[in-house]
Amino acid sequence: MDQRKCECGHTNPIGTLLCESCGKPLEAFGEGQNAFPDMRYEGMARRSQTYTTKWIDKVWNFFSSVKVAIGIILVILIACAIGTIFPQQQYIPVPVPTEQDVARFYSDTYGTLGRFYYELGLHNLYSSWWFATLLVLLGTSLVICSLDRAIPLYKALNKPRLNQHKSFLKGQKVFAETNLPEGTRAEELLEASAAAMRKKGYRIFAADHALLGEKGRFSRWGPYVNHIGLILFLLGVLLRNVPGFYMDKYVWVREGETVPIPDTPYYVKNVAYHTEYWAKEELPVELELEEGFAIPKSYQTDAVLYLNKNADIPGAPPDLVELASGPILVNHPMQYEELSLYQSGFQEMQLGALNFTLVDLKEGNREIGPVKLDLFDPPKEIEVAAGYKVRVLDYFPDFKMGSDGKPITQSNLPNNPMFTLEVIAEEKNISEKMAYLQGTVITQKKDSRYGLKIEMPDLIDITGLNVRVDKALPLIYFGSFVFMVGVVMGFFWQHRRIWVQIQEGKVLIAAHTNKNWYGLRQELQGVLDQLNLPVKVEENSKA
Amino acid sequence: MNKTNRVYIRVAILGVLLVALVFALYSSFVKDPNAVKEGKAAPNFSLERLDGGQLALADLRGKGVVLNFWGTWCEPCKKEMPALQKQYEVFKDKGLEVIGVNIAESPITVEPFVQQFGVEFPILLDRQSQITKLYRIGPIPTTFFISPEGTVKEIFIGQLNEATIASKVEKILP
Q1: Residue A392 above 50 pLDDT?
Q2: Of chain A residues 499-518, which have a CB less than 8 A from chain B?
Q3: Does the CB of A136 have a partner CB in chain B at under 8 Å?
Q4: In 3D, which of A48, A219, A79 has the Cα closest to residue A149?
Q5: Which of residues 69-128 of B touch A (CB under 8 A)?
Q6: Residue A369 pairs with which residues in a beta bridge?
Q7: A432 and chain B: CB distance < 8 Å anywhere?
Q8: B82-107 burial, b for 16+ CB within 10 Å, e for fewer?
Q9: DSSP-derived secondary structure letter, B45
Q10: Does residue B141 have a cis bond before it (omega within 30 degrees)?
Q11: Residues near A160 by beta carbon (within 8 Å), at least 6 away in sequence
């Protein structure tokens, strides 16, 4: 037999605690271990417990367990915590161009623990396959746990039971029993109590000698609404993996430069970058700041966003159309359709170009004209003045003397620029070679006619922009909103029920709520006082 | 609801959740669906040549292409340059093209370097590292061996010598 028959004649599915029809506990209860069943799911059989014959039911049964759900949540919590011990790969604060550099970063910075961290793949924990699996398992558990409880609960609450068995009423935490006062008809008493409960906002269900007042039933759905919110949230996180839904890129742009945004047809130009500082007068209190130290007020890039109409072939000369322009401030991104550009980094006062003045040393340091050497796009030849040219022969942006005694560059960044130049005075038929290196100009001939006077270099700011597309964000926000609605439903309302039954000249009163028992007792006492029934509402400590 | 219905619904729900799991696993394994891989088509691009004009990869269909990413600051790039030049001379009449993509350097830096090594094959200037990023270049030198049909046959990271170049080129000649 997989079903249980109640003495009232109703057949209940296995796992049922309280008879679906009369509410009588199906197991005898008394004190101690055989306490009155928990009212959380109205004594209904949880669906998963009904049949576990097929393997699919076993899988279902596994995920429907709250213990399993808590286990999954704990594992996720621990994993999340471990992921914060050392920085994740994308947050390594120094450039790590190759995988070896990444490995070296962890072992050099954090020692043996760091090495293990890297080798276990914990430096990419949140995008690992097993973390994704855990999240999906959590989603599965949420869906199944909710379905498994919400459906029987809905069925139970949808048809309020009126003629409950006396043991059901007796088993409630709040229960009172008294004789029907002399000269009062049962109908009158029920009518009066119905009126009193209605006044307090209860919905009344009535039958022969039985009455049920109920309010705030919807608060029982709070946990399920909040689970729907969580499922939507997780779905949003999962959707980020769908191509086109999510993009997160970082570009460094020098002032005046227009760069392509990788994997998009867009270009962005940094017109100017500027950090603003609080003036002394603006500060509410006098701060003892060190000399030359100021507190930043804002970080701003004036940017232009372009679309490359010639994006079909990467690298081909771009055909740019302006889409948007304006300032980008921290937390105030530039937005164009789904694209957002956030201010996220800066490097100020970087060398942009070297400036010199060509001088004729033999004519009393006569200034001939300016020479500008752009470090990112040096010119081949500069017309300094009529008849005077400077040719750039060699450029080593990150100079170092090589092991064979020849100059080399260590990178393509102008960290230590070195130029070799040729000054040509056409009319005088003079050609002289010289080099610039680490703040000095070295001439090839000791007794050279021309020289370069070093002027103030052009300093530029480089801005770091975070380019993002996140189409899943509205769903994630919506999920969070639904989650909050569920929390509010469950937290600020209570499902209260009061049963009044008249059996054999006795008035039986029982009440149940899912929280705030004090409030329920007050409310019930108010009703009883109105009816002039000589009972004091007390809590039944047994239950 | 009867028993068979219940089983169907459970199978359907678990099926949907399984699809979600497979998708989550797939996308965490395939982190970069646009990455250039062996066996996949080499993405087309067009870059400015050091000696002027543009060169597009697609124009070289029908030829085997050795696509080499390099920089003047990179010692192994320097060392393999003569080997690339030699093999270019050996195979250029048999349908091989060698292309050196310089990563974000100015022509003034690149030109003396190219002259010093007597490089005759086309050198392209990837001034904004756009193609370097497109091909997901990590350490350099990185060399792609591309078939006449435009498929990446092999990706080699590190310094090449003449013998290895020759053996790999044999596989991509038309």
Answers
A1: yes
A2: none
A3: yes
A4: A48
A5: 71-73, 103-109, 112, 126, 128
A6: A358
A7: no
A8: ebbbebbeebeeebbbbbbbbbbbbb
A9: -
A10: yes
A11: A205, A212, A214, A497
**Is residue A300 within 8 Å of residue A274, measured between CB atoms?**
yes
Residue A179 C-alpha, separation from nearest chain B C-alpha, in angstroms: 44
Measured between CA atoms, how close is B59 to chain A, in angstroms? 12
Looking at domain B46-170, its CATH superfamily turns out to be Glutaredoxin (3.40.30.10)
Whether the complex's predicted ipTM surpasses the cut of 0.85: no
Angle ∠(B144,B145,B149) on CA atoms, nearest 5: 120
Query: Touching check for B5 and chain A: CB below 8 Å?
Result: no
Q: Which of A133, A241, A377 lies at the smallest CB-CB distance from B21?
A: A133
Taking only the tens place, the pLDDT of each residue in A111-163 is 999 999 998 989 888 888 899 899 899 999 999 998 888 888 888 888 887 77
Angstrom distances, CA of residue A345 to CA of A102, A249, A257, A295, A330: 21, 13, 16, 16, 10
- The stretch A279-289 carries a mean pLDDT of 79
pLDDT tens for B1-50 read 566 777 788 889 889 989 988 888 888 777 777 788 888 889 999 999 99
What pLDDT does residue A431 have?
A: 87
Give how far B32 is from chain A: nearest CA, Å.
10
Which range has highest mean pLDDT (A76-80, A263-267, B30-34)? A76-80
Per-residue pLDDT band at A1 (split at 50, 70, 90): very low
Residues B69-82: what's their mean pLDDT? 90
Q: From CA B117, how far away is CA B69, in angstroms rounded?
A: 16
Tally A–B CB contacts below 8 A. Answer: 123
- Contact between B160 and B80 (Cβ < 8 Å): yes
Contact A135 B56 (CB under 8 A): no
A15-20 contacts, C-beta under 8 A, 24 or more apart: A15/A45, A15/A46, A15/A49, A15/A50, A16/A43, A16/A44, A16/A45, A17/A43, A17/A44, A17/A45, A18/A42, A18/A43, A18/A44, A18/A168, A19/A43, A19/A165, A20/A44, A20/A156
Which residue carries 């219940």 as its tokens?
B6
Cβ of B73 and A57 within 8 Å?
no
Q: Does position A511 have pLDDT exceeding 80, yes or no?
A: yes
| Residue from B2, B47, B78, B109 whose CB has the most chain A CBs within 10 Å, to mutate | B109
Which pLDDT band, with edges at 50, 70 and 90, does A258 fall under?
very high
Query: Which whole number is the average pLDDT over A440-468?
Result: 88
Which of A224, A150, A46, A156 is CA-nearest to residue A497? A156
